[in-house]
Fold:
Amino acid sequence: MMVADRLEKIEESATLKISDLAAKLKREGKDIISLSVGEPDFPTPQHIIQAAIKAMEDGHTHYTPSKGIPELREAISDKLRVENGIEYSPEEILVTPGAKHAIFEAVMATVNRGDEVILLEPSWVTYEACVMMAEAQVVWCPLNENFEAPDLQEYVSDKTKMIIVNSPNNPLGVVFRKEFLKEIRDIAVDHDLLVISDEIYEKIIYDGVHYSLASFDGMWERVITVNGFSKSYAMTGWRLGYAAAPRNIIDSMLKVQQHSVSCATSFVQYAGIAALKGDQQFLAGMVEEFEKRRDLLVNGLKEMGISYAPPDGAFYLFADVSSFGTGVEVSEQLLQEAYVAVTPGEAFGKSWRGWVRISYATSRENLMEALKRIKDVLI
Ligand SMILES: Cc1ncc(COP(=O)(O)O)c(C=O)c1O
Structure:
């Protein structure tokens, strides 16, 4: 009775639910291997930590401008121009406490009650919740067996306001092809739609190439590019992300930020500058290790005759376990009998009932042991 209607239908984050349950079992002494985590298992690089300590010692421990400190917005502007081929001035950039909050602010700032927002299914769980908090409607467009959406057009109505795109994709691990992104571009331009392009996994790619949607013709004015530091620099707990978009959108998002969190944490923003401008060697090493783990997992699944979406990026593998049951059934069985935690595909959309998401943000030893246990239980 006390709870607002808009929150009633929003579920607890299904991905966090599984990791919490796995953590609980672990605390109870069970030998759980968690393949459900959404964060790199690498320590944040030392030079980034040192930059935060120095910022604190230098007295940067107070509120910053709500948009973010100018030096960081300049560094982000340079990064987007050099790496992504998109021109955003520092005024068109908003530094946020995590990419997640950037997405929340972007939806709050642009989507009206009753508008429709298209999500490509399967989709990361937070997009749906943000749309619901804006009292708008989610329209699910299921991806086909090639993890593309040739009939996307059919999901557009006169109420459609936005499409949310995430490549490299969580939960799929797929890097969307340029041709598919161009199809999305054509539809967005033809129907005058906004697009959130969540590019948080852009640097974790093994095969395929990352394209920023805002760099495509006709897209700059309609795309909100979202990115952050959590995945590329193993900084999930620092809470640092950003959005880049035309000034009127950024300034509306700024209102949400000013009246919710004021600004991203001061000294963390200085650490962000060190991350962007400092040595990038860490990243190459992390991606190399992720690739080895991905290969190990792929070989293990192949041996069991389990197929999967092309695992070209991020650190997830989306596997078809339909011959063993639904995603929920298989996840429960693996947790209870193999002490291996994976995330059911259903968490990311109803059409993916026979799938599970396996995160390989854990050691190769853990992965080998998990594969052995999965095989023992399923095969
Ligand atoms: C697709 C996607 N976008 C955004 C985020 C959130 O990142 P941040 O830690 O910067 O809020 C995540 C984290 O799991 C994610 O998987």
The longest helix spans residues 281-303. The domain at 61-277 is CATH 3.40.640.10 (Aspartate Aminotransferase; domain 2). The longest strand covers residues 160-166.
